[in-house]
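FORM 7B: Structural annotation worksheet

SECTION A. Query
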Amino acid sequence: MKKIYTTSQIRSLDKFAIDKLKFPSILLMENAVYSICEILEKHYHLSEEIKSFAIFVGKGNNGGDGITLARKLVILGHKVTLYHLYQPITFSPDARLNFELLKKLKSSFPKLLIKKISGKEDVKTFEGCDFYVDAILGSGSDGNLKDVLRSLVETLNKIECIKIAIDIPTGLNSETAYGEVVFNADLTVSLGGLKSSLYYSDGYLKSGIIEEGSIGVPPSVYIKESNIRLLEKVDIKSLLPIKSKGINKYTSGKTFVIAGSGDYLGAPVLVSKAAMKTGSGAVLLAIPESLKFSIVSSFPEVVVKPYNDYHNEYLTGANVVELSNDIEHSDVVIIGPGLGRKVGTIEAVKLIISKFSDKNFVIDADALYAISLIGIKNIDLRKSILTPHIGEFAAILKLTAAEVNKNLLKYGKEFVLKTKSVLVLKGPRTLIFNPDGDIYISPTGNEGMAKFGTGDLLSGMIGSLIAQGGTLLNSALAGVYLHGLCGDQLKEKFTSFSYTAGEIINEIPNSFKLVGV
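SECTION B. Predicted structure
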């Protein structure tokens, strides 16, 4: 797993390099820009032809990086226009020194222009360039740009060109990954180390390709621990349960699925098929008796366990006794997809989770809605994995999705600390929170998975891995990664428009092969 860092950790690395290792701060800036140039060459082959750059700089060291980059690009023969938003007298010492050096080059390099942005009227149009480089705020934004800065970023985002962000896209809160208006980069060079806020929420949406830029001192010299990690393909095989040669269908994992209702017949089938395809030896599906023939005809491999619904087509608390024996003898219970939101169903969810608190649970969809009404103080979730999207998670917390999105890590960490559960917070980049304080980010998955049914598959995959002997955390990590990997393979084959949840199920075997199983 790749360690990624908070902005405060990288700042402490800078301070350590300057105070303890006695690196001159301007040398760190020079190293950073040398690294940026290498990355730009790697992606855009700048040595092959002359390009034009518009570089926008603020007054801090992020602006200093941009000024230094302007100097190096001009010397390489490229056309550069440097736009500065503040008077040079206000620049940080290193930024001011590099600005003075750059000004001395103007007479020798006619392709260099330096312009001051004074107000909103100056940000309406910019001369067309091949590249627009953001070196305005870096990690200095609280996620709420105002006045000229906001207008500038909004204008830049409308321009069709290649956009580069140095360190952090302007407008992104580098600690929370939230921003109302954020520079929309095609490439972000994260200086000093990979910053976690670039990998989820608005950071993921706005950072484009993420590359690590060096300041000449690697994070490992000073930062020994990080509780945020990025999953890698090489990690997944070791997270999977071991398939012993001596197992049989009774010992290779029994998954009990409580899902579906008269309104939602597809969800239980998708969950059960995903669980079976992920390796569970037996998948048992509890379904209203009046619906059992519909299920059997669409999925003969599942063992249907009908309960008496009195033709109401949904689960109630009265059915818990009927289900008890199968719950007791199963290795994991997946509950929620397609159950519906009847009052009786909410009561049943509470009774099942409370009565069988020693059992492993994967809780999703309508069971999450039930928990939002029951309250986390009134239910034991210590052996549970919860798999909400941000809206469902916000409902459990009694907050709005907008409030939660402003600080996902804070709310996720607080939740698992209180409940001792494992939280799989689904999104464009899914976050997994462990009660021990560790946070994991999966790099797999794509926009084509934003369809009904894909979340049901994730529950089935995670539950199946638990049934086969995986720990809650390992099963969540592997399940999320493999689920997203299926989607990535299908996007490559068909584009993100054209694949379905059912096709993701068929891709599960290939995802196992890709991680070396």
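SECTION C. Observations
The domain at 233-514 is CATH 3.40.1190.20 (UDP-N-acetylmuramoyl-L-alanine:D-glutamate ligase). The two ends are 18 Å apart (CA to CA).

SECTION D. Sign-off
Analyst initials: ____
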